[in-house]
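Hey,

Quick one before I head out. I ran the complex with D-glutamic acid overnight. Inputs first:
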Amino acid sequence: MDNRPIGVFDSGLGGLTAVRELRLLLPNESIIYFGDTARVPYGTRSRETLLRYVKQDIGFLRTFDLKTVLVACGTASTTVLESVRGDYDLPIFGVVEPSAAAAVAASATGRIGLIGTPATVRSGAFERRVRQLNPETQVFSVPCPLLVPLVENGRTSPDDPVLQLVLEEYLAPLQAQNIDVLILGCTHYPLLSEAIARQMGPAVRLIDSGAAIAQYTAATLRQNGALAAGTDAGSLRCFVSDQPHDFARLASLFLRCDTEPEVSRVDIEQY
Ligand code: DGL
């Protein structure tokens, strides 16, 4: 048993897709969330910049006594996680492994689509992992730079005309490839699941990278005997690097909670 909280970070709201699933699976775990809202988006940054950001994000989370850290960000997971993981003495999980495993298990035809940020698609990390798991698989990838700003501005409704137009352009090449599974390789994208599902149709199974990392974390903690003891509901504390108000409002919508979570501002450049 381990009652220490789980740390989770992302560039902004996207990592809440992992938090949502974690709270469903493990309601008595406490969570410390950091959203780097002053520096979102990550997906268009260079590797050097991302390395600095990720070290600061983990540095801030490490000011708490945590049992594990979730890199609930596709961009950070695919570009820099492997080079920093060894620098820390606690387990750090990313989204690639759990999402790739879920995609391979779900695909009957071996034709898998991937959407992600430009940095994620450029890294090739999802394709490598999928093809390690099943070398017969074909992966078709499309970078979608406009989706994160839309989510950060709350434009997630499937009826939003701007979102529909943008998705039409991004998803058309994947529809043409007859994929049967689509990896939402950025943790912001599950907030657009309804809109994406509407365009891709019922024959395409969506893999939610936020849910996948949460399921992987729950299974690993259970296996290692590291779940929180007791039956009290776990707490959620959120920190952001810019003004907290919009985040608190959107977070309560996305997490479907009646009350806004506690959100505080942190000066991330100090870490
Ligand atoms: N949600 C993150 C990801 O999964 C970050 C997106 C961004 O900031 O560009 O890639």
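The mean pLDDT is 95.

Talk tomorrow,
K.
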